[in-house]
DNA sequence: TAGTTCTTGTCAAATATTGTCTAAATCTAA
DNA sequence: TTAGATTTAGACAATATTTGACAAGAACTA
């Protein structure tokens, strides 16, 4: 499940209108629409607010958001998998200290 | 081995001066110095040129460069590992198609 | 068809990144 | 030590990227 899909399905489950979510996020409907369509990435602050507005576990949303940044960095590269693995190892070894 | 370290050690192995590398990369010594100290990230074009100038396998350099972008995205996040893993899965499943 | 919701395109403002210059710091050899 | 060379640090303009906002169009609903 991709971030944009999650946001849209959650909003629909809760029967909220774009304008209602928009006001909770302090922006306009156009931006929310774009976020739900994957045309724009939410900022981190928006992620925080969206978690509250849509009642989604914050860390779940954050994970998805971060993973999409990672994905964008490497997609289309033929060394994508190796690059991600290198980063993963680095994170893991750092956590041990 | 981190990108900046690799670049510096390779240059030293080859007994090149910053200004020599700089001219091959079409920039000035200050920038190369910063790259070697990790203060600046090379652009992708610079990675390509550095691979040639320093005689480093291009894909190796590219992997390191990409991995550091990934690392920067998630470092310090307590969901960092999960986020990377999600991205990794996504890349893997997409490659199958 | 009118009213509402959603989508799209555009563009300026805000941010972030990059390149270059200058001068200071560090190193090296005589 | 000092002169000359190399490397580093700081500042700042140029560029690029991201973001927010507006307006108009499209799609949906009653």
TrEMBL record, chains A, B:
Q: Provide an example Pfam family for this protein.
A: HTH_3
Name of the featured protein:
Helix-turn-helix transcriptional regulator
Upper lineage is: Bacteria, Pseudomonadati, Bacteroidota, Flavobacteriia, Flavobacteriales
Query: InterPro entries of this UniProt entry?
Result: Cro/C1-type_HTH, Lambda_DNA-bd_dom_sf
Q: Which SMART domains match?
A: HTH_XRE (SM00530)
Per the UniProt record, the source organism is Psychroserpens ponticola
Q: Tell me which residues make up the HTH cro/C1-type domain.
A: 7-61
Query: Which PROSITE patterns does this one have?
Result: HTH_CROC1
Which first-to-last residue range defines the signal peptide?
Answer: none
